[in-house]
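Sequence only, no structure available. Ideas?
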Amino acid sequence: MFANLTRRKLQLLSGPLLLAVLSACAHFPDAGLAPVQSPNDEREYRLLTLENQMQVLLISDPDTLKAAASLDVNVGSGDNPEGRGGLAHFLEHMLFLGTDKYPDAAEYAEFVTEHGGNRNAYTSFEHTNYFFDINATYLPEALDRFAQFFIAPRFDAQYVDREKNAVEAEYQMGLKSDGRRALDVLQEVMNPEHPFSQFLVGSLESLADRPGSAIRDELLSFYDKYYSANMMRLVVLGSESLDELEDLVQPLFSPVPNKSFQHAPNAAPMFADGVLPMEVEVKPQATLRQLKVSFPIADYRSEYKAKPLSYLGNLVGHEGEGSLLSQLKAEGLAEGLGAGLGLAWRGGALFSISVSLTEEGVVNQQRVLQLLFSYLEMLREQGPKEWLYDEQAQLAQLAFRFQEKGSPMGYVSAISGGMHTYDPIDVLQGGYLMSDYQAPMLEELLGNMVPVNALVELQDASARTDLESVHYGVPYSVRQPSAQQLAAWQSGSVTDAFHLPTPNQFIAEDVSLVNIEKDNPSSPVLVLDEERKQIWYAQDEQFRLPRGATYINFRSPLVGQSAQQNASAVLYTALLKDQVNEYTYPALLAGLNFSLYKHAQGISLRISGYNDKQAVLLQELLQVMASPNFDSQRFDNIRKDMIRALENSVAKRPSSQVLDDLRESLLYGEWGEEPVIAALRGMQVEDLNAYVVNFWGSANAEAMIYGNYSPDSVQALARKLDLVLPDGVAPDLQPLKVLKIAEGESLLYPVQVEHDDAVLAWYLQGAGNSWKDRAATALTVQIMKSGFFQQLRTEQQLGYIVSTFAWPQLDVPGLVMLIQSPAADAAALSDAMNAFLGDVPLAVDEEQFQRHRDALINEVLRPHKNLWEQAEFYWQSIAKKQYEFNGRQTMANAIKSLNREQWQAYFEEVFLNQQRSLQVAAPGARGQFPRGAGRSVESAVQLKSGHAVYDIE
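Reply:
I predicted one. Tokens follow.
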């Protein structure tokens, strides 16, 4: 459960985010109504309205192994009663903890977990969204439990008191999050009459009982007022037919009470008259340099066929030649830029432009603002362009036409969250529609993007502050810009460097499917095997889309042996991406993606998407990789940006920092922030150039081509690889290494994290690296995870982040128990984990064991949902040298072979009596470490030095 406070860069083609397609009401007589769906979507859909006015979308997918459901309530943090910040979020927590029909607070979670599922919820400003998935056979029983949350929740007093602590822990966890801190300041400077000005997350103080006002009573009143069937949207996806799903849903959800609630109009503007323009300076926790300019605008969500914000966000956020970002980079002022919808509410919205500044950009922020307003003026002078709109519409239509399946749970959650907006017929295509070009609407929108209507926010350590926010204690200041500043922002005439994007050369024109060869293998085969390069190839016969994946792994012994090598490789890839960014950005918009990154033994290049223009993109990328030309200013700016990012690790969530330390402790070739920062500080462009020459002199390549490709693509790729690969014998690579903890060995790694919460990540390694060890460890986590959360979080209230999960490192099996706690020290956390472990073997009866085992097998064997999942499986199998591509079946067989007695024996021997244990602990304000945790080490380097290892060839 989490409060969704994220503000996203919204551009038209933002990958999986486009799955947030929406729907709206259908009336019961129209129960046969089906929305327009992608030609690539074979599922069946039905919209209907129950007698209680709950609107429902049913999805029948006979092939799915996972069923899923989501219910969205059009109520969120913006509806909190005055003075009761976090009440909507608190209700989201409480709803899961027992109903009249199923009073056990743990029953729902246990049922879903035992049957291979997951469940969660989130609270945003206007919505509370509940969702789960489960093995498809068990959808009826799961839906029965789920429906009861909206019919007869118990809100037991004992859990009201306990769950307030979980909300408090979540609040405390976010105190050093710069995202939440910036939002806290925004809420303070906005109109206090606006509903979004309220405290979102909640705390023990805001949720405390008060004279004449018990929080449980207010919780019940909030639920009774807002949780009305007419405000709910339900999506159910199952393997049953539509008629069967309707017969299932009708009796389960029709009893949800309809209170005929309707939201009152929100008349309060976000900013009172005369407040804007406004300058706000905020002092962040991290070394953050960000300038954000926001403009209040109308709420255009109902204009989803026109999508004016998508059009404008695409132009302002463009990164190609002639763009705002291109000029900011040329002047050394910025490293990145995003533009789009910031916040939206009933009656208005914010359009935000966020600029990641360089040090020079902070000093010259007035120049940054001058360029920003100059670019907006250029857009006004040029006026809306229908050809640009049509180009975006074409890209969106291609994305919808060739839409692929994703996670059932994510899919239903995204749809239910928007069913309050789209027309029924557009429930699936609404997010992709751009069929209503309205130049006057675009002109109106651009007319609001002027200095006198701007909120300018600077986040930087140099911020001049004289105020402190109430909830997060953020130092900030507020002032109105002077007349001279406003004049300066508008004084920059439109520079010749700014111009509209040129027509996108990467838009796929040929979307035909290649003929499948008669001898096409069922999985990739090695079709080219030379000294310096190997290429695997297969045509996709399952998904049959005009897309493909070309993955290339460049391996070299000059990666992974020192912090200096790793820093050089990471900086090299960052500079390459920066050098090609203006060229490749249109490809990204056109659904042609690439990634370039350092891995444990070298550098990986991946290209995926429509295969029509892939060869053009790959040719350019390899030519730049072969002959890079690094500008000294860009080298220095990117190097400094990397150093800043590493220094900002202290601002990450404490539990994430501890997991980073654990990973460094286990994997050889991983280094912490300090040695990498030191390497970057001492690096000159000449040093990097020398490294690049040596890297390519020692490199070999392994590649995979999978998808809509013809056989001649193999030789075409081989010729392109010759651009970067030398002749001769490639040098040997060092094997990858994982720390091998001995039987009975117990290790403690104390780390310092700048946060009051204590954090403990307790890693237990499997007995070996066999399939049996992997199966027994994975099965242990499957059995533990629900009870661990229920006991240590819900019952004992040790913290908000409480989880246990499988954590294999290069397939060496292990599990992690993780808690971040504001309420207990690390010693108490270790004791609680140890007590829980002792109860695990006897807490599982034979029926439960078989359910857990079946659930895990189903998850391991789950069919790949799309081309990319299939390609990733093949690529990882090649990297692991599992050339039979049977790893999943081998793992499933190993799990199936374990009976309850064998698993109990393994658990007691490996995870209780002779543990292979490593505890990484951050003491927090209490300063305590686990007792009796074994040999203490000062650093990951000390731990790994001379220690036994697993060699991974």
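Residues 563-589 form the longest helix (27 residues).
Hope that gets you unstuck.
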